[in-house]
């Protein structure tokens, strides 16, 4: 199987080119349909806040939302008007729903969702929380591209973070939808300090399954502590000349991730490469 429906989520003007560059690379390669999605959220006033909000605030907020939507639509059309693959622009307005909920609704019919990573210099964490929510709840693989992403290849040479968990299995098989005959997969076994023969056999079986699809496959084992997972994956991708990383996402509960931290969040903050997150 291969991807045929791509959902490109455009949340702001600054990262739109990065998302659309990635969408175009995949769509050309797989002759896929691209839906460019922008979600407009209403200005929420909570009943518990005892203050009057002047009408001018709502007016100016609405005006800014319209201007942003028009700019994003123009950017989308500029990228895709001359492409051979099909594309469509979709503007959704949220009333009681959040932007994440509207994105998740649209993601249900997509093979892959593309979003930009948070701006590393941003003062708020709103976008990072949005991306995390979509990864957790969409039920679809989410490809998160760097804020300033600009490359000429994507999904042809992939480093797959592997630890034999359910999420890692999903990531490995989601990656297969992006790979074609002759492409390269580097299966990197991480966070494993044991030498369990059963796990070794599973890793070898996975590599063999990739090779049967005519994918050039390597199996690499490394031992890194959790705080270094993002750095390890980025280092491996750089050394192997990969154009993407694929990992299982949020293998623990929300409470665990909040208190202990997660390798997923570490990668969202630090990756120099597009990362496919599967859950």
From TrEMBL:
Domain UspA, residue spans: 167-277
Domain of life: Bacteria
Xref: InterPro entries: UspA
Family stated for the protein in its record: Belongs to the universal stress protein A family.
Protein name according to UniProt: Universal stress protein family protein
